[in-house]
Design brief:
The complex is a heterodimer.
Chain A: H1 2-35, H2 56-66, H3 77-94, H4 121-128, H5 131-141, H6 145-176, H7 181-191, H8 195-198, H9 200-213, H10 225-228, H11 238-263, H12 283-308, H13 316-346
Helix pairs in contact in A: 1-2, 1-11, 2-11, 3-4, 3-5, 3-11, 5-6, 6-9, 6-13, 9-13, 11-12
Chain B: H1 7-30, H2 60-83, H3 85-88, H4 90-112
The chains are: A mainly alpha, B mainly alpha.
Chain lengths: 347, 119
């Protein structure tokens, strides 16, 4: 019985994620349009009196479903077909341990798909790095030079930036003494200090690596449409192409949620508003925490979209240099400094 | 670690697989299919593809992969250390400093050897 309830919860969360992704694509297109002095999608829905093209995601979805999925003759078929499925599965699995609201035995509900999984952050990284398989398999199996180069670039980029990403959060793990994301939020809530203030260097390294891990500009070398057509998904069309998009945006949501949890205090608001203490239980507190958390995540996502239209793409050697010659030494320094300061403070 | 907590992840895996396979199945039913010889050719901006795709590629990718293995294992070692740092005291700090120093020397060596230079 309990399993059915949990299954329903998981289904709702997954659907909300997909809906959020659909509207994120709309937001991204709108921001792109305004950045380039255009209007962007504004027709879909105007027949029904719905403004701003708010039905555009529906139209996009229907279009992707109804387009022919061309299966080129020279691809490695099993791998070619399985790559977009892996992209979606890896992206959704990563969200399993992300707490998007209060979690605990006294709370009205656990706002987390897999509560009480104490390895928390490690799980996100373990599953998050599976996404590289989708990209490599897609790039290799397409048997297309653009895809192949895109897949190679992407594999080198993703594994290079995984190291600073892992190292940058170690500072916060040292300070809070836990890998559990709920414990990290609780620590920030108890002290009313956000991670960005106790581990600023870690925050910067995390943010830069997160951009690279989600293939967002200025690190979108795997796609780089001006040089590689579409990179690893050049040969994909119809729904299979759409699935790569969905997976990528779910990844963006997960990374933004992680940024908020690790460095933005989760649902903490410095005690400015009531109901935002980890001791508060009940529906009002739950809804308040959920709202604050969602607003923060939205702010991080908007920041990512803003950066996309602000910075140009890196050159490939610059990209690798940034990871190996700047971020990794800096992350090691940050880790060492945090450990020493903690030792001094704690005596 | 309690195994039952991981059941949620198993359930999520089921849902995720549905979300991955359902669109493909649906598109297979709904989407039109009109095969033609020209459509099946590799897409290279309208020019017929020339030569092999899966050629030998530059060694740099391989070297970065090797470096990645070393440093990723290092990060894996650091996680349990960081989580229980508060209980370990000054000895853990000294020990980890030596560990980090050895790896840092490795990175500096690779750097000095020109391995990190993308040519």
């Amino acid at each position: 019985m309990a399993a059915i309830g949990i299954l329903i919860k998981i289904f709702i969360v997954a659907n909300v994620l997909m809906g959020a992704v659909a509207y994120l694509i709309w937001v991204e297109r709108k921001i792109a349009a305004y950045a380039q002095d255009r209007i962007g999608p504004n027709r879909a829905g105007s027949e029904f009196g719905i403004p701003f093209g708010l039905l555009q995601p529906l139209a996009d979805g229907a279009k992707m479903l109804l387009k022919e999925g061309v299966l080129p003759a020279y691809v490695n078929k099993p791998l070619y077909l399985i790559a977009p499925v892996i992209a979606i599965i890896a992206a959704l699995l990563g969200f399993a341990v992300v707490p998007f609201g209060p979690v605990g035995p006294n709370q009205v509900m656990d706002f987390q798909i897999a509560p009480y999984v104490d390895i928390g952050i490690l799980w996100v990284f373990a599953v998050g790095s599976l996404a590289v398989y989708a990209v490599i398999l897609a790039g290799w199996s397409s048997n297309n030079k653009y895809s192949f180069i895109g897949g190679l670039r992407s594999s080198a980029q993703l594994i290079s930036y995984e190291i600073p990403l892992g190292l940058s959060i170690l500072g916060m793990v040292l300070i809070t003494g836990s890998l559990d994301l709920n414990a990290i939020i609780r620590w920030q809530n108890e002290h009313h200090v956000w991670g960005v203030f106790v581990s600023p260097l870690g925050f910067i390294i995390f943010l830069v690596s997160a951009f690279a891990e989600t293939n967002r500009l200025p690190f979108d070398l795997p796609e780089s449409e001006q040089e590689l057509v579409g990179g690893f998904h050049t040969e994909y069309s119809g729904m299979k192409f759409g699935m790569f998009f969905l997976g990528e945006y779910v990844h963006v949501i997960t990374v933004s949620a992680l940024t908020v949890i690790l460095f933005g205090g989760g649902w903490d608001l410095w005690g400015l508003l009531p109901y935002l203490n980890y001791k508060d239980v009940g529906w009002i507190a739950a809804i308040a925490k959920l709202s604050v958390f969602s607003v923060k995540v939205a702010a991080v996502i908007l920041f990512m979209m803003w950066i996309r239209w602000t910075l140009p793409r890196f050159r490939y050697d610059q990209l690798m240099d940034l990871a190996w010659k700047s971020l990794i030494p800096l992350a090691l320094l940050n880790l060492f400094a945090t450990a020493v300061v903690l030792q001094i403070v704690r005596g | 670690m309690i195994i039952s907590n991981y059941i949620f992840i198993g359930l999520l895996l089921l849902v995720a697989m549905t979300f991955g396979l359902a669109p493909i199945a649906l598109a297979h039913v709904v989407a039109p299919r009109k095969r033609s010889r020209v459509k099946e050719v590799a897409y290279e901006c309208g020019v017929l593809t020339h030569g092999e795709t899966w050629v030998r590629f530059r060694i740099q990718y391989y070297i970065y992969a090797l470096l990645f293995v070393v440093f990723d294992i290092e990060v894996v070692f650091l996680f349990p250390w960081a989580a229980s740092y508060a209980d370990l005291g000054i000895f853990a700090l000294v020990e980890m400093t030596i560990f980090l120093a050895i790896l840092l020397v490795g990175l500096i060596y690779a750097w000095a050897k020109g391995v990190l230079r993308w040519v």
